[in-house]
Amino acid sequence: MAEPYPPGIEPYAHGMLDVGDGNRVYWEVCGNPAGKPALVLHGGPGSGAGPFWRRLFDPAAYRIVLLDQRGCGRSTPDAADTGTPLAANTTHHLIADIERLREHLGIGEWLVLGGSWGVTLALAYAERHPGSVSGLVLFSVTSTTRREVEWVTRDMGRIFPEEWARFRDAVPEAEREGSLVEAYARMLADPDPAVRERAAREWCRWEDVHVSTLPGHRPDPRYEDPRFRMRFARLVTHYWRHTAFLEDGALLRDAGKLAGIPGVLIHGRMDISGPADIAWHLAQAWPDAELVLIGGEGHGLSGTSMTAAVVAATDRFREA
């Protein structure tokens, strides 16, 4: 079983790229300066790219690029500050940022690795700029459709009824039968800081619940940080309420644009946060993709088998 590469892989270059609209995105490069270029697209949106992502690549073979997407991680301005506007924070802006970074680093094409929300962004980027992508390694596959957003925010109440009732009841009673994403986004913009904080806390509490399908699940410690909670909740609700700023179903519809780009789709069968049919339908529409369904695994890389499959996939692409 493939193991993550050892810790201690440190950047040899980093910077802040001015991408316009008052935004500067943090980037870093580690591994082999002469290696195969690879880009990491983190989840959330709003999680930021932590050091563990570096360990999914062979540092002797890859030139590993990480960036923090607009508004999160080390990028500025910080979406944790409720005065930070989000109008210039859309999928289309992020795609443009990725291309600007590729050109800034002098990279012709790169392998793109994404997880969860990072899959949605990777697919949107690759369909827009297929000539910039040498391959795709995607895990915990999502495409941020209206159906997926409704599944996570409402239908999963059938699986976690008590927890979902708390999530719903944090919203004013008059709004509970409508879009919960819209209701939370409104509360996160409320002038009363107590309303904003409660919304961020309850949103992140529910985020922790709907990925907790495996025995031994531990709450994500990042949600204990009030600034992370606010940043994460603001960005997720912003993107979800606009279904990733894409025409609903467009990523699957346009999967033919990925023809000739090899890919691996890695998904846990126990991932009820993002059901496996999302990955399966994508694999049917993208003939160059291999679907790897892993029994007993859920959402993200909390399980060893999911992590091993991602590392095995990047190892396969080393020489491709």
Q: Could you please describe the fold and organization of this structure?
A:
With 320 residues, this protein is of the alpha/beta class. Helices cover 35% and strands 18% of the residues. It has helices spanning 91-104, 117-128, 146-153, 161-169, 180-188, 193-209, 226-241, 250-253, 277-285, 304-316, and strands spanning 11-20, 23-31, 36-41, 62-67, 110-116, 133-141, 263-268, 289-294. It has an 8-stranded mixed sheet with strand order 1-2-4-3-5-6-7-8, with helices on both faces. Strand 5 (110-116), helix 2 (117-128) and strand 6 form a beta-alpha-beta unit. Helix 4 packs antiparallel against helix 6 (193-209), helix 5 (180-188) packs across helix 6 (193-209) and helix 6 crosses helix 7 (226-241). The longest helix is centred in the middle third of the chain and has 17 residues, at 193-209. It starts with 10 loop residues before the first strand and ends with a helix. The mean pLDDT is 96.
SSE inventory with pairings:
Elements: E1 11-20, E2 23-31, E3 36-41, E4 62-67, H1 91-104, E5 110-116, H2 117-128, E6 133-141, H3 146-153, H4 161-169, H5 180-188, H6 193-209, H7 226-241, H8 250-253, E7 263-268, H9 277-285, E8 289-294, H10 304-316
Parallel strand pairs: 3-4, 3-5, 5-6, 6-7, 7-8
Antiparallel strand pairs: 1-2, 2-4
Active site: 116 (nucleophile), 271, 299 (proton donor)
GO molecular function: aminopeptidase activity
Subcellular location: Cytoplasm
Q: Could you give a short description of this structure?
A:
This protein has 320 residues and is an alpha/beta fold. It is built from ten helices and eight strands.
